[in-house]
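Title: Prediction job returns without error message
Component: structure pipeline
Severity: low
Priority: P3
Assignee: unassigned

Description:
Job completed but the reporter wants confirmation the result is attached to the right record. Sequence as submitted:
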Amino acid sequence: MKGSAKEWSRFTPQERLARFSVFLGFGIAFALSLQKVEVIPEFLLDAPQQVVDLLTRMWPVDYSYYWEGVHVALVETLHIATLGTLMSLFFALPIGVMAAGNITKIGFLNWFAKLLLVSSRSVNTLVWALLFVAVFGPGALAGTVCIAFRSIGFVGKLFAEALEETDPGPVEAMIAAGAPWPSVFLKGYWPQVAPAFWAIFLFRWDINVRESAVIGLVGAGGIGMALDTSLNLFYWDRVSLILLAIFAVVVLAEVVVTNIRKRII
């Protein structure tokens, strides 16, 4: 007696039900979100015409305004990004060490360090900028502190994860030989995490260059303040110049970071 042929199926009934549930959930979430957003059809249909009108007003670009109102603000943006990133290292490195479970065995310190890292990352950069503008007043100081505080969570978390992924062999050998803790860290941990550390630092500086151009919109210094002024005064030819300057700086920062990473890592 021949056995019945088995029918091949890509998914089991349980998997089909799970996939259907996921797609149904996404569909419901999309429908509810679309309803809450309240898209106005008239504005949506008119958008292409408005974009063409805006681009027409932004052309030709007012290049003469660069030295008058863009160059200094652009340099200030780079200073904010660089100084803020460097400042974040002084706090992110010790907090990252405390957050690494294989180094810090004290549960309270480990939990407290992770809480600090989460607190830094949980709030958007613009919100931190608004807070520090209220504390320090408008200007580059508020922007620098904002960038530094926001970067602590990013740098510290990735640094802690790099420490937790190190090979324990060299570390255990140095501890067995009686080496002091600073030597264990500098000779056992640091050589393993140094490439990751420099990659994290460069990547965060690249991000901070972009964010420094945005926080000026709320008064935290840099090119964003010049952009906000031009937008408020409807100087669209200057707006296009500022946007081109931001784009050029971001591309240049990307090129610089990529080349440095190739040489260091």
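Comment from assignee: result matches the submitted record. The chain has a mean pLDDT of 83.
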